[in-house]
Structure formats: structure tokens, C-alpha cells
Design goal:
The chain is an alpha/beta fold and about 525 residues long. The protein has 4 domains: about 200 residues, P-loop containing nucleotide triphosphate hydrolases (Rossmann fold), CATH 3.40.50; about 160 residues, Rossmann fold (3-Layer(aba) Sandwich); about 40 residues, no CATH class; about 80 residues, RRM (RNA recognition motif) domain (Alpha-Beta Plaits, 2-Layer Sandwich). The strands form 4 sheets. The protein has a 7-stranded parallel β-sheet with strand order 3-4-2-5-6-1-7, with helices on both faces. Helix 12 links the parallel strand 10 and strand 11. The protein is elongated and about 100 Å long. The structure holds adenosine-5'-diphosphate (ADP) and magnesium ion (MG). The site of adenosine-5'-diphosphate has 12 residues, from helix 3.
């Protein structure tokens, strides 16, 4: 992998700071390849899988190419769905943390057009929208295309599949020809080629080649869990299998630090390894790991690249990796030199699709597993201990201890009592709280449905207003409502499928913060 550092990509220091704040350590392969080409002003056809960071691949150069002093529309991003348009906008707003004078706005069907017009009038340099609504604004002249310098078609194949071809062509026909056109697509179907032939000028094709990946022959298991039970699940796996050396992978530095703190709090010998550490600090951590002073190393992919220990007996993907190649690198840390190894992955909700991608491209067989219960762990610990005891008996030279035992034995205390007490002292830790992972998932996970509500933080809506309204109007227990994401003008929330009908019906014509709300199923990406 030839991933570049963000500093190597001619990006402004404001953007570099912003992506660092987001926890990005280095550019992904598509970012490493596409960003400088886009800066060169070329038309681009980019092809890479989902989850490989395409938003930043086009977003970062797009932002840096905006003329801050010009308040007119300069870039248009077309995306197949409303939810995706919103996501792209949210990601752009994070990139814009230190460039606040660049304004970006999502426009999509389903939201009153007047409100969008109002927002557009304030001056927006970047618009992210679905083709239908962008065309609508174009026809009303509320989006003036004459000043547009860059067009980005995200998930172009998806847009064509959804029947947006005509709209896209109408839009592209209206944008000055000296613009730059960037197109991303997961496939290069003939329809895509037709579109690029017609609208792109001498495009450069950027493909992230998928290397032949070979996954070592080790036991790979995944667990479907919730974010908040990950720490507990990690402890369980470690307690269950008592590995000597474990490497746990997280996707960002922040996650590494947090997990290390949790594990240390629970009494494990764990340390973190990430890009913020100086070389000398890393060397110290690695030395401790090799000497077994610590048994758990928590690392980001980047930091782990330099690790050269080959007797790791367990790898945990605390976060699923962004890239399937990372998956292979990660689990390749274990099972080396003929040793047995285990690789565990945590999967939260829709990440199951990412895992399926990983399995498809790496041909890895990852089995669904069940996290050990406390009883399983007790049993495993007991077995372990009993094995150790047997070994000690085999080794003999116990005379001194037999004498002690004999001196304790009396009418009230038998040899069995003494053995039982010793076992108890060695084995059981009674103050752990049990969590039933299965139960915990039952009402959630696959069965969660994402809903969209047309009010957000602008109307001072808070999570408890949403929960209150839904619980009150629809007779649904407030605690059944899952994640709530409040944006300026809208809110997404997860609810168990079995309540969806009641909510859609119950919320009809109701108000939250004096706004008549519309609740609908969020469109799938
Ligand atoms: P795609 O559009 O290719 O499906 P996204 O742009 O949606 O992928 O990115 C997927 C996820 O990866 C997002 O959560 C994004 O914030 C994160 N991401 C993108 N680039 C990086 C990076 N260089 N380092 C770490 N995380 C990244
Ligand atoms: Mg994308």
C-alpha cells in the first residue's frame, strides 16, 4: 500500500487540521491517488469500493479549490439519495471546521423547496443534491449554473440505476463546458462509459486495484454487538481464551486511547500504539509487549504496520477496518509460524454489509459467533486451572505441601474442603455484572429502522423532545427509541421495526416545537 500522509497532498493547513481532528491518520488509497489529480484540474473517473473514503477524495480538493471571496455557486455534487446527500454535507461541514466562510448546502426532494431557496439566497458555494431537486432549482433559477467550476457525480452507477440519467444530462448540459467533471462509480457499466464519453474531457481513470489477498488459515469469528457493550465483550474474550499476546485494532487514535483507559481500569495490562506517539515512546511500548510486561496492545492500522512480533495469539477488530486489505493485514498478525491463532471482529448494525464485502473480496470465512457468558468463562478458567493442578501433581516434589495439608486436616476440615477453598480463592471474581449480549441485541440490530423527521436543531429540538413526542403520541416506550441524530433541519432516529407503523400513523399531523412534523422512513443508501 502506498498511502500518503495528508501533508503530502498539497492540502491547506486548515483542512489538514480538520481531518486530523476527525481522527484520520493518513489518506486511503483512493484519496492518495485522486486528490492530486483533482488539484491538477483533470476530469476524473474514480472507481473504488464503498467505505474507501471517496467523500474526502473529492471533498478535500473541491473545498481547497473554492474561491473564498466569491460567494457564488462554484461546485455541484450530485448524489443518488437524500440520505447520502445529507451525509456528504455533514462530512463536508467537518472538513470545513477551520474554513467557516465556505458554505455548503444539501438540496433534496421531500424538504419544502422554499426553505432551500431561502438558504440558497444567503450565498452557498457548494451544493450537494439529488439530481431531481437540483434540476428543479436550476429551472427556477434559484441555482445558477453559470458560475459552476466543478461537478462531482458520486455513486454514478447508482444514480443511473435509479433512472436519473436524463436529469443528470440536463444538468450537465447547463454547466459551462470549461468546468472540471469528477465521476465516482463502483462499477464501469456500459451506461457509465456512455456518460463519461459524452461529458468528460480526456478523463483520467483512477482505480484502486484490488490485490489478490490471501487470508491466513486461522479461526475467524464475528460477533454482532452494540457499540456500548464492546468493552465488556473484549474483556470476555480475553478472559475466556487467556491469550498471552493480543492485538486490538481501532480505527482512530481517540478510540485507541479510550479503549486503553477502559481496559486498564479493568485491571488488564494494556497499552496503546498510534501515530501521535514519538518513535521512542513506540519503542518502549513494543518492548513491553515483547517482554510480556503488557499483554494487550491496542493499535491503529498505521501504527501497527511497524510491529514485528509474530507470536500474537489473538487479534480483535474492535472496529471493523475501512479497507479489506487492512483486514488481511490485521488478522495476519496472528497464527504465524504454524501457531494457532484467533481473529475476532465486532460488527455493529449495518456494518454487517462491510463485513460481507470483506468476506467477498478476501474470500475469508468469518463465522458468526456467540460471545462467552460469565458461566462459559468460569468454566474455561476452571478447566485451565485444573489442568495446571494436574501438571503440578505430575511434576511431583510436593512433600512439603502435603505436610501442610495434613496438619490442617481435622474432624471439621477434610482434604476436599481445603481443595475447594483453594479453588475458590484462585478462580472466582464475583463482582462482575452479567450482560446477556443476545438479549441486548434482540430488539435492535437488524430490526432497527431509520426514520427521518423534518425538524432539527434550528427549531431547538432536542433528543428528549423527539422521544417525548413519539412516546406520548404513539404509546411507545421511550427507551425503545435508539440513536437520535439531530441536524440543523432534520433528525434521524432508529426505532425497532415493530413500532414503525404506529409511529408513522401516530405522528401524522402532530407538532414538535410548534412545527408540523412529517415522519418517514429514511431512504436507504
Ligand atoms: P465511500 O464514499 O468510499 O463509501 P466514505 O467517504 O463514506 O466512503 O468514508 C467511509 C468512512 O471512512 C467515513 O466514516 C469516513 O469518515 C472514514 N474515512 C475516510 N477517509 C478516512 C481516512 N483517511 N482515515 C480514516 N477514516 C477515513
Ligand atoms: Mg460515498
Amino acid at each position: 500500500m502506498t498511502n500518503l500522509k495528508f501533508e503530502q497532498l498539497q492540502l491547506s493547513k486548515e483542512l489538514i487540521r480538520a481531518v486530523k481532528d476527525m481522527g484520520f491518520e493518513e489518506a486511503t488509497p483512493i484519496q492518495s491517488k485522486a486528490i492530486s489529480k483533482i488539484f491538477e484540474g483533470k476530469d476524473i473517473i474514480g472507481q473504488s469500493q464503498t467505505g474507501t473514503g471517496k467523500t474526502a477524495a473529492f471533498g478535500l480538493p473541491c473545498i481547497d479549490m473554492i474561491d473564498v471571496n466569491n460567494k457564488k455557486l462554484q461546485a455541484v455534487i450530485l448524489s443518488p439519495t437524500r440520505e447520502l446527500a445529507i451525509q456528504i454535507c455533514e462530512e463536508f461541514r467537518k472538513f470545513l471546521k477551520y474554513k467557516e466562510d465556505i458554505k455548503v448546502l444539501p438540496v433534496y426532494g421531500g424538504q419544502p423547496i422554499e426553505r432551500q431557496i431561502g438558504a440558497l439566497k444567503k450565498g452557498v458555494q457548494i451544493v450537494v443534491g439529488t439530481p431531481g431537486r437540483v434540476m428543479d432549482h436550476m429551472n427556477r433559477r434559484t441555482l445558477k449554473m453559470e458560475t459552476v467550476k466543478m461537478v462531482i457525480l458520486d455513486e454514478a452507477d447508482e444514480m443511473l440505476d435509479m433512472g436519473f440519467r436524463e436529469d443528470i444530462e440536463t444538468i450537465l448540459d447547463k454547466i459551462p463546458e470549461d468546468r472540471q467533471t469528477v465521476l465516482f462509480s463502483a462499477t464501469m457499466a456500459p451506461e457509465i462509459m456512455e456518460l463519461t464519453d459524452k461529458y468528460l474531457v480526456r478523463p483520467e481513470v483512477i482505480k484502486v486495484a484490488r490485490k489478490e489477498l490471501t487470508v491466513p488459515n486461522i479461526e475467524q469469528t464475528y460477533f454482532e454487538i452494540k457499540e456500548k457493550t464492546k468493552v465488556e465483550a473484549t474483556s470476555r474474550l480475553i478472559d475466556m481464551y487467556s491469550p498471552e499476546l493480543v492485538v486490538i485494532f481501532c480505527n482512530t487514535k481517540k478510540r485507541v486511547d479510550e479503549l486503553v483507559e477502559h481496559l486498564q481500569g479493568r485491571g488488564y495490562f494494556a497499552e496503546g500504539l498510534h501515530g501521535d506517539l514519538k518513535q521512542i515512546q513506540r519503542d518502549i511500548v513494543m518492548k513491553k509487549f515483547r517482554n510480556r510486561t503488557i499483554e494487550i496492545l491496542v493499535a491503529t492500522d498505521v501504527a501497527a504496520r511497524g510491529i514485528d512480533v509474530d507470536d500474537v495469539d489473538m487479534v480483535i477488530n474492535y472496529d471493523l477496518p475501512q479497507d479489506e486489505e487492512y483486514y488481511v493485514h490485521r488478522i495476519g498478525r496472528t497464527g504465524r509460524a504454524g501457531r494457532s491463532g484467533r481473529a475476532f471482529s465486532f460488527v455493529v448494525g449495518r456494518e454487517i454489509y462491510k463485513l460481507r464485502d470483506i468476506m467477498k473480496y478476501t474470500k475469508a470465512k468469518v463465522k458468526l459467533g456467540k460471545l462467552p457468558s460469565l458461566t462459559d468463562i468460569e468454566e474455561a478458567k476452571t478447566n485451565n486451572f485444573v489442568e495446571k493442578v494436574k501438571k503440578v501433581i505430575e511434576e511431583g516434589r510436593l512433600n512439603k505441601y502435603i505436610n501442610i495439608v495434613e496438619s490442617i486436616i481435622s474432624e471439621d476440615i477434610s482434604a476436599v474442603d481445603i481443595s475447594a477453598a483453594l479453588l475458590k480463592m484462585n478462580l472466582y471474581d464475583e463482582n462482575t455484572e452479567d450482560i446477556d449480549f443476545e438479549d441486548d441485541l434482540e430488539d435492535n440490530n437488524e430490526k432497527l429502522v431509520r426514520l427521518f423527521i423534518n425538524v432539527g436543531s434550528k427549531k431547538r429540538v432536542r433528543a428528549k423532545d423527539i422521544v417525548g413526542a413519539i412516546a406520548g403520541e404513539c404509546g411507545i416506550p421511550g427507551k425503545a427509541i435508539g440513536d437520535i441524530d439531530i441536524y440543523e433541519d432534520y433528525t434521524f432516529l432508529d426505532v425497532p421495526k415493530k413500532y414503525v407503523k404506529d409511529i408513522l400513523k401516530g405522528m401524522k399531523g402532530k407538532k414538535i416545537k410548534k412545527v408540523s412534523v412529517k415522519v418517514e422512513r429514511a431512504k436507504k443508501r
